[in-house]
Specification:
- The protein has two domains: about 120 residues, Response regulator (Rossmann fold, 3-Layer(aba) Sandwich), CATH 3.40.50; about 80 residues, Winged helix-like DNA-binding domain superfamily/Winged helix DNA-binding domain (Arc Repressor Mutant, subunit A).
- It is of the alpha/beta class.
- The protein has a six-stranded parallel beta sheet with strand order 2-1-3-4-5-6, with helices on both faces.
- About 55% of the residues lie in helices and about 15% in strands.
- It contains eleven helices and six strands.
- Helix 5 links the parallel strand 5 and strand 6.
Amino acid sequence: MIRVLIADDEPMIRAGVRAVLATAADIDVVAEAADGHDAVELVRRHRPAVAVLDIRMPGLNGIDAAAEIRTAVPGTGVIMLTTFGEDDYILQALGGGAAGFLIKSGEPEELLTGVRAVAGGAAYLSPRVAARVVAHLAATGAGTLAGRRSAARDRVAALTAREREVLALLGAGLSNGQIARRLHVVEGTVKAHVSSLLARLGVDNRAAAAVVAHEAGIIAPQPPQP
């Protein structure tokens, strides 16, 4: 059972997220919070597999709450809920190591996919979030959109064929175990490939690598969900 905490200052958003998660037999919402401080304390108390945080909350925002959670309970993966117009916050959260990014108005299946992915140790970017991150980076002086995509393809081309396969699956939100099963190798081999490709791409975490995969256009098809 995947234990989840939800934190958002809007009761209707929390109710909506809970309702979606309640449709999954393998997910259990163990706590809810209306601000970042409570979210951190409840994560310490309940130690969920995943914390779903609003990126902007009163008191302690989702980015700072995620940083505290990563320090206090590193086994809890963090998914950020965002709205349109929060691209700068997304980039901050991406740099801070958040593992998942979802649009509040996204499809319910994306929430379930994201929670399962992050619970399994993977990174998950909603396709719309990934597209916005790439476009925002281009718009803020990090290169034109075409230039970033070309640069990403060049970076990916420098990887080994197996590393490219792993990156494509990582970008689709698969965990190491899922990637291992898809490629018919042991999980330790996948971990080694992930470590290598992170270093060769010059990124710090799986979510940042997923952005490169989206920029390069090599996302693998999603596997069927249970």
